[in-house]
Structure prediction request, 240 residues.
Amino acid sequence: MRIVQVQHVYQLTFMPRFFPVNCYLVEEKEGLTLIDAGLPYSTHGIERAAARIGQPIIRIVLTHAHGDHVGALDRLKARYPDAKLFISRRDARLLQGDVSLETGEPDTPIRGDVPKHILTQPDILLEDGDDVGSLLAISAPGHTPGSMAFLDTRTRALIAGDAFQTRGGVAVSGRLKPLFPFPALATWNKEISLESAKKLANFNPSLLAVGHGNMLEQPQTQLERAIVEMEQHLRISPKR
Prediction:
Protein backbone atom coordinates (compact mmCIF):
# COMPACT_ATOMS: atom_id res chain seq x y z
CA MET A 1 0.00 0.00 0.00
CA ARG A 2 1.18 3.50 -0.86
CA ILE A 3 0.22 6.61 1.14
CA VAL A 4 0.38 10.13 -0.33
CA GLN A 5 -0.75 13.23 1.57
CA VAL A 6 -1.92 16.48 0.00
CA GLN A 7 -3.55 19.09 2.24
CA HIS A 8 -6.01 17.30 4.58
CA VAL A 9 -6.31 14.32 2.22
CA TYR A 10 -4.41 11.04 2.49
CA GLN A 11 -4.60 8.78 -0.56
CA LEU A 12 -4.22 5.07 0.23
CA THR A 13 -3.42 3.08 -2.91
CA PHE A 14 -3.60 -0.68 -3.10
CA MET A 15 -1.79 -2.41 -6.00
CA PRO A 16 -0.39 0.94 -7.21
CA ARG A 17 1.67 -0.50 -10.06
CA PHE A 18 -0.81 -2.87 -11.62
CA PHE A 19 -4.42 -2.04 -10.78
CA PRO A 20 -4.48 0.99 -8.47
CA VAL A 21 -7.48 1.09 -6.15
CA ASN A 22 -7.69 4.20 -3.99
CA CYS A 23 -9.49 5.12 -0.83
CA TYR A 24 -9.02 8.29 1.17
CA LEU A 25 -8.69 9.49 4.74
CA VAL A 26 -9.71 13.10 5.27
CA GLU A 27 -8.43 14.72 8.43
CA GLU A 28 -10.89 16.62 10.61
CA LYS A 29 -10.44 18.06 14.10
CA GLU A 30 -12.61 15.37 15.66
CA GLY A 31 -11.32 12.39 13.67
CA LEU A 32 -10.96 10.87 10.22
CA THR A 33 -13.48 10.49 7.44
CA LEU A 34 -12.78 7.44 5.30
CA ILE A 35 -13.95 7.81 1.72
CA ASP A 36 -14.49 4.39 0.14
CA ALA A 37 -13.52 1.04 1.60
CA GLY A 38 -11.25 -0.46 -1.04
CA LEU A 39 -10.88 -4.18 -1.58
CA PRO A 40 -11.70 -7.01 0.86
CA TYR A 41 -8.09 -7.21 2.05
CA SER A 42 -7.74 -3.41 2.52
CA THR A 43 -8.81 -3.42 6.18
CA HIS A 44 -5.39 -3.70 7.79
CA GLY A 45 -3.83 -1.10 5.51
CA ILE A 46 -6.58 1.39 6.30
CA GLU A 47 -6.20 0.68 10.03
CA ARG A 48 -2.43 1.18 9.85
CA ALA A 49 -2.85 4.47 8.01
CA ALA A 50 -5.33 5.76 10.59
CA ALA A 51 -2.97 4.75 13.40
CA ARG A 52 -0.10 6.51 11.67
CA ILE A 53 -2.15 9.71 11.40
CA GLY A 54 -3.14 9.27 15.04
CA GLN A 55 -6.89 9.77 14.79
CA PRO A 56 -9.86 7.39 14.84
CA ILE A 57 -12.10 6.78 11.86
CA ILE A 58 -15.43 8.38 12.76
CA ARG A 59 -17.18 8.25 9.37
CA ILE A 60 -17.18 5.89 6.40
CA VAL A 61 -18.42 7.60 3.23
CA LEU A 62 -18.99 5.78 -0.05
CA THR A 63 -18.76 7.46 -3.45
CA HIS A 64 -20.67 4.57 -5.01
CA ALA A 65 -21.47 0.90 -4.50
CA HIS A 66 -19.00 -1.08 -6.60
CA GLY A 67 -16.98 -3.94 -5.15
CA ASP A 68 -13.60 -2.18 -5.31
CA HIS A 69 -15.02 0.70 -3.27
CA VAL A 70 -16.89 -1.30 -0.61
CA GLY A 71 -14.76 -4.45 -0.29
CA ALA A 72 -13.60 -3.95 3.31
CA LEU A 73 -16.78 -2.27 4.50
CA ASP A 74 -18.12 -5.00 6.78
CA ARG A 75 -14.74 -5.60 8.42
CA LEU A 76 -14.14 -1.89 8.92
CA LYS A 77 -17.57 -1.42 10.45
CA ALA A 78 -16.78 -4.25 12.88
CA ARG A 79 -13.47 -2.58 13.70
CA TYR A 80 -15.01 0.90 14.08
CA PRO A 81 -18.59 0.20 15.24
CA ASP A 82 -19.26 3.84 16.15
CA ALA A 83 -18.33 5.10 12.68
CA LYS A 84 -21.40 6.23 10.76
CA LEU A 85 -21.86 4.94 7.21
CA PHE A 86 -22.88 7.48 4.55
CA ILE A 87 -23.99 6.70 0.98
CA SER A 88 -26.35 8.32 -1.48
CA ARG A 89 -29.99 7.38 -1.17
CA ARG A 90 -29.88 5.99 -4.71
CA ASP A 91 -26.79 3.81 -4.34
CA ALA A 92 -27.97 2.45 -0.99
CA ARG A 93 -30.12 0.11 -3.09
CA LEU A 94 -27.11 -0.89 -5.16
CA LEU A 95 -25.15 -1.59 -1.98
CA GLN A 96 -27.73 -4.29 -1.21
CA GLY A 97 -27.38 -5.83 -4.68
CA ASP A 98 -30.52 -4.27 -6.20
CA VAL A 99 -29.71 -3.41 -9.84
CA SER A 100 -33.24 -2.42 -10.85
CA LEU A 101 -33.71 1.04 -12.33
CA GLU A 102 -35.88 3.78 -10.89
CA THR A 103 -38.68 5.52 -12.77
CA GLY A 104 -37.27 8.09 -15.17
CA GLU A 105 -33.74 6.68 -15.30
CA PRO A 106 -32.30 5.83 -18.74
CA ASP A 107 -32.84 2.19 -19.66
CA THR A 108 -29.18 1.21 -19.68
CA PRO A 109 -28.00 -1.66 -17.50
CA ILE A 110 -26.06 -0.96 -14.32
CA ARG A 111 -22.57 -2.31 -14.87
CA GLY A 112 -19.57 -3.19 -12.76
CA ASP A 113 -19.02 -5.33 -9.70
CA VAL A 114 -22.23 -4.77 -7.77
CA PRO A 115 -21.87 -6.20 -4.24
CA LYS A 116 -24.09 -9.11 -3.23
CA HIS A 117 -23.22 -9.90 0.37
CA ILE A 118 -22.71 -6.59 2.21
CA LEU A 119 -24.20 -6.75 5.70
CA THR A 120 -23.58 -3.18 6.87
CA GLN A 121 -26.60 -0.91 6.65
CA PRO A 122 -26.21 2.82 5.94
CA ASP A 123 -26.73 5.20 8.84
CA ILE A 124 -27.24 8.32 6.71
CA LEU A 125 -28.59 8.54 3.13
CA LEU A 126 -27.05 11.48 1.31
CA GLU A 127 -28.59 13.96 -1.09
CA ASP A 128 -26.92 16.62 -3.20
CA GLY A 129 -25.71 19.50 -1.03
CA ASP A 130 -25.51 17.66 2.27
CA ASP A 131 -22.61 18.35 4.64
CA VAL A 132 -20.39 15.55 5.89
CA GLY A 133 -18.02 17.19 8.33
CA SER A 134 -16.03 19.65 6.19
CA LEU A 135 -17.11 17.88 3.01
CA LEU A 136 -19.87 18.97 0.66
CA ALA A 137 -21.70 16.01 -0.90
CA ILE A 138 -22.22 16.48 -4.64
CA SER A 139 -24.50 14.24 -6.66
CA ALA A 140 -22.49 13.01 -9.65
CA PRO A 141 -24.39 10.15 -11.32
CA GLY A 142 -23.21 8.38 -14.42
CA HIS A 143 -20.73 5.75 -13.33
CA THR A 144 -23.58 4.43 -11.18
CA PRO A 145 -27.01 6.03 -10.81
CA GLY A 146 -26.19 7.29 -7.32
CA SER A 147 -22.52 8.19 -7.55
CA MET A 148 -21.38 11.11 -5.39
CA ALA A 149 -18.28 13.27 -5.09
CA PHE A 150 -17.09 15.18 -2.03
CA LEU A 151 -15.57 18.66 -1.96
CA ASP A 152 -13.47 19.71 1.02
CA THR A 153 -14.83 23.20 1.67
CA ARG A 154 -11.61 24.22 3.44
CA THR A 155 -9.34 23.64 0.46
CA ARG A 156 -11.55 22.78 -2.57
CA ALA A 157 -9.99 19.31 -2.77
CA LEU A 158 -12.40 17.11 -4.74
CA ILE A 159 -12.68 13.39 -4.02
CA ALA A 160 -14.57 12.28 -7.10
CA GLY A 161 -14.80 8.49 -6.93
CA ASP A 162 -15.01 7.15 -10.48
CA ALA A 163 -16.57 10.28 -12.00
CA PHE A 164 -13.08 10.73 -13.47
CA GLN A 165 -10.02 8.52 -13.74
CA THR A 166 -6.39 9.59 -13.93
CA ARG A 167 -4.78 6.16 -14.47
CA GLY A 168 -4.14 5.67 -18.18
CA GLY A 169 -4.97 9.33 -18.86
CA VAL A 170 -7.44 11.78 -17.36
CA ALA A 171 -10.91 10.81 -18.54
CA VAL A 172 -14.57 11.27 -17.77
CA SER A 173 -16.22 8.07 -16.57
CA GLY A 174 -17.28 6.07 -19.61
CA ARG A 175 -14.51 7.31 -21.90
CA LEU A 176 -12.41 4.23 -22.53
CA LYS A 177 -8.66 4.57 -22.09
CA PRO A 178 -6.87 1.52 -23.52
CA LEU A 179 -4.12 1.59 -20.88
CA PHE A 180 -6.74 1.35 -18.11
CA PRO A 181 -10.21 0.59 -19.52
CA PHE A 182 -11.92 -0.74 -16.41
CA PRO A 183 -13.77 2.37 -15.13
CA ALA A 184 -15.26 2.90 -18.59
CA LEU A 185 -16.38 -0.71 -18.85
CA ALA A 186 -18.16 -0.40 -15.47
CA THR A 187 -19.96 2.86 -16.31
CA TRP A 188 -23.76 2.94 -16.38
CA ASN A 189 -24.48 5.97 -18.59
CA LYS A 190 -21.96 8.06 -20.55
CA GLU A 191 -24.20 11.03 -21.24
CA ILE A 192 -25.06 11.47 -17.57
CA SER A 193 -21.38 11.01 -16.68
CA LEU A 194 -20.52 13.91 -18.95
CA GLU A 195 -23.07 16.19 -17.31
CA SER A 196 -21.73 15.26 -13.88
CA ALA A 197 -18.15 15.91 -15.03
CA LYS A 198 -19.12 19.42 -16.13
CA LYS A 199 -20.85 20.02 -12.81
CA LEU A 200 -17.75 18.94 -10.86
CA ALA A 201 -15.38 20.99 -13.01
CA ASN A 202 -17.45 24.08 -12.22
CA PHE A 203 -16.19 23.86 -8.64
CA ASN A 204 -12.67 24.60 -9.94
CA PRO A 205 -11.06 22.13 -7.53
CA SER A 206 -7.57 22.65 -6.16
CA LEU A 207 -7.01 18.89 -6.12
CA LEU A 208 -8.57 15.97 -7.98
CA ALA A 209 -8.58 12.65 -6.11
CA VAL A 210 -10.19 9.68 -7.84
CA GLY A 211 -10.72 5.97 -7.42
CA HIS A 212 -8.04 4.92 -9.90
CA GLY A 213 -4.86 6.90 -10.49
CA ASN A 214 -2.70 9.55 -8.87
CA MET A 215 -4.01 12.76 -7.36
CA LEU A 216 -3.70 15.87 -9.51
CA GLU A 217 -3.08 19.34 -8.10
CA GLN A 218 -4.62 22.30 -9.96
CA PRO A 219 -6.39 19.94 -12.37
CA GLN A 220 -8.74 22.39 -14.11
CA THR A 221 -7.06 22.35 -17.52
CA GLN A 222 -6.96 18.56 -17.56
CA LEU A 223 -10.60 18.31 -16.46
CA GLU A 224 -11.71 20.63 -19.24
CA ARG A 225 -9.67 18.69 -21.79
CA ALA A 226 -11.23 15.41 -20.63
CA ILE A 227 -14.72 16.91 -20.92
CA VAL A 228 -14.08 18.09 -24.49
CA GLU A 229 -12.74 14.63 -25.37
CA MET A 230 -15.89 13.00 -23.99
CA GLU A 231 -18.11 15.45 -25.88
CA GLN A 232 -16.33 14.59 -29.12
CA HIS A 233 -16.57 10.88 -28.39
CA LEU A 234 -20.32 11.06 -27.82
CA ARG A 235 -20.89 13.06 -31.00
CA ILE A 236 -19.31 10.38 -33.17
CA SER A 237 -20.53 7.33 -31.24
CA PRO A 238 -24.01 5.82 -31.57
CA LYS A 239 -26.31 6.25 -28.59
CA ARG A 240 -26.48 3.24 -26.29
Notes: The mean pLDDT is 96. The CA atoms of residues 60 and 85 lie 5 Å apart. Helices lie at 43-53, 67-70, 73-79, 89-95, 182-185, 190-201, 220-236. The chain is about 25% helix and 25% strand.
